[in-house]
Amino acid sequence: AAAAAAAAAAAADSLPSELHEAASEGDGGRVFELLDQGFDPTLRHVRYGFRTAFDVAKTKEARNAFRRYMALHEDQWDWQAAHVPSALTEADEAERLEREKLKAKEKKKKAEKARKERRKQEESDKADAVRALEQAVGLDDMDVLASALQCAQTVGVSDEPIRVARERLDTLRKEAADPDVQRRKERERHAAAAEARLKRMQC
């Protein structure tokens, strides 16, 4: 009995495996060629877990090779036993290609629309950043100017507004470190406050 079982296993292992190999490697051209040579797609090979060649096909190209051959030779094999679900005719493939073209065209159209919207938003962000930077340059607040400058650099504002803002920031930093400048500015603030109080009293 053991000898008989071993002989049966050896016989099963010696069955043609080329179709299974081509399918498992995803080689659609080789699959079609082997089918055309008469290799049996219904064969369940022991080395492939007693599955058919179609079952082990790893790519769509390989699976479609079985379906294309089935469309041309529907009566040659029991395709249900081979687990090939349906035939793939030239008309089917032409329709599929047309669907893929339309899908690719729609995808490209959406990508272009998204790109335009993104560019429009980028330009809007730059314009907002330039306005904020120009306002900050006119103030004496280093923190506000530094923040506006960083934002402008992040969104890619052109060089000239950046240069003006940096120069202004350098000036504010130097003034902040100069006691004479700070005393002068303090006097100016007091004078402006006094002038404002005087105007209110006159009203």
Q: Key features?
A:
203 residues, mainly alpha, 73% helix, 0% strand
Notes on the structure:
With 203 residues, this protein is mostly helical. Helix content is 73%, strand content 0%. It is built from 9 helices and no strands. It has helices spanning 2-13, 18-24, 28-36, 53-56, 60-72, 90-137, 142-155, 159-176, 179-202. α6 runs antiparallel to α7 (142-155). The relative contact order is 0.06.
Structure at a glance:
This protein is mostly helical and 203 residues long. The protein contains 9 helices and no strands.
Structural class of the secondary elements? Answer: mainly alpha
Helix count? 9
For this structure, the quaternary state is single chain
The termini sit apart by 122 Å
Radius of gyration: 39 Å
Pattern of helices and strands: HHHHHHHHH
Uncertain residue ranges: 5-9
Percent in strands = under 5%
Q: How much helix is in the residues? A: over 70%
For the residues shown, what is the average pLDDT? 88
Overall form: rod-shaped
| Total count of strands | 0
Main beta-sheet strand count, sense and barrel state: none
Which helices and strands appear, and what pairs or packs with what?
Layout lengths: L1 H12 L4 H7 L3 H9 L16 H4 L3 H13 L17 H48 L4 H14 L3 H18 L2 H24 L1
Helix pairs in contact: 2-3, 3-5, 6-7, 6-8, 7-8
